[in-house]
Amino acid sequence: MPSGKRCGCSEIESPIQPSESERLDIASMIRGYTLDAAYQLRLEDKIGSIETGKKADLVVLDQNLFEVDPYSIHKTEVVMTIFAGGRSLSGARIAHESCWPCSQMPDATV
């Protein structure tokens, strides 16, 4: 008797993944969205990394992407976004002003 599942298999034991040679680690993924993206736009001297003189648009996340389970990264929430030198809180107004990273952020470019 059919179980109601399309393929008839029991349960998927692990996430479906590309072959190992096609996978990227977290550091490579982040670099692809930051410095490598700026390079492709020929703006690596202006954006893409946190350096003196560069525009610093960035986000503060609620967990460290290098420490969280890769299959839980999608649950990461943006705590704060800093864009064009200004602050913009995201989501619920948590006491960000009292947390160390938020209190250390400059209001202008780095």
What can you tell me about this protein's structure?
It is a single chain. By secondary structure, this protein is an alpha+beta fold. It has two domains: 23-51, no CATH class; 56-110, no CATH class. 17% of the residues lie in helices and 13% in strands. A three-stranded antiparallel β-sheet has the order 1-2-3, with no helix packed on it. Strand 2 and strand 3 (86-89) form a beta hairpin. It is flat, with a radius of gyration of 19 Å.
Terminal CA distance reads: 65 Å
Largest sheet: 3 strands, antiparallel
Low-confidence stretches: 1-5, 92-98
Number of strands: 3
- Beta-strand percentage? 5-15%
Tally of helical segments = 3
Report the C-alpha radius of gyration, rounded.
19 Å
**Total tally of structural domains:** 2
